[in-house]
Write a structure and sequence with these properties.
Elements: H1 3-9, H2 16-27, H3 34-41, H4 50-62, E1 67-69, E2 77-79, E3 86-90, E4 96-99, H5 105-113, E5 124-127, H6 130-137
Parallel strand pairs: 3-5
Antiparallel strand pairs: 1-2, 3-4
Helix pairs in contact: 3-4
The chain binds zinc ion (2 copies).
């Protein structure tokens, strides 16, 4: 799906800026922060402000067009992949890895069967990634 269609599908009015931000998020599966997105787009979009980027990303998250991750206590990160997946943050390099295992699905089913409306679930793991671990051993 194109950024434009994803925004429409999630009831987000697709302005030029919003499409550019969504496209960036879809092309960069690195879970960028608002700062990262701003740094990447501000050259080509001089009217863009950091606040706009942040508010736009939050809006995407509120509408379910993106995930908002609070795994890193210094940064809020965003993810265009809204499928159920877990995240692993390396405390050394800051890289956030995706894990497409159905984590927490049973719990969600259980909560739903109790009559709760579960809209999202986040599973976070933290530690040192293998790349950083290998570097330490060198
Ligand atoms: Zn690392
Ligand atoms: Zn992810």
């Amino acid at each position: 799906m194109k950024a434009y269609d994803i925004l429409l599908a999630h009831q987000v009015k697709p302005s030029m800026q919003r499409i550019a931000i969504m496209e960036y998020l879809m092309d960069h599966k690195t879970h960028p922060s608002a700062e990262d997105v701003y740094a990447a787009l501000s050259d080509s979009m001089p009217t863009l402000s950091k606040t706009t980027v942040y508010n736009t990303l939050r809006l995407f998250a509120e509408h379910g067009a993106a995930l908002m991750l609070t795994i890193d206590d210094k940064n809020v990160n965003f993810d265009a992949d809204t499928s159920q997946h877990a995240h692993f943050l390396c405390k050394k390099c800051g890289h956030i890895y995706d894990f497409h295992t159905p984590v927490g699905m049973n719990k969600m089913k259980e909560l739903r069967s109790e009559g709760h409306m579960v809209e999202e679930a986040h599973t976070y793991y933290k530690g040192i990634c293998k790349e950083c671990k290998n570097r330490q051993n060198d």
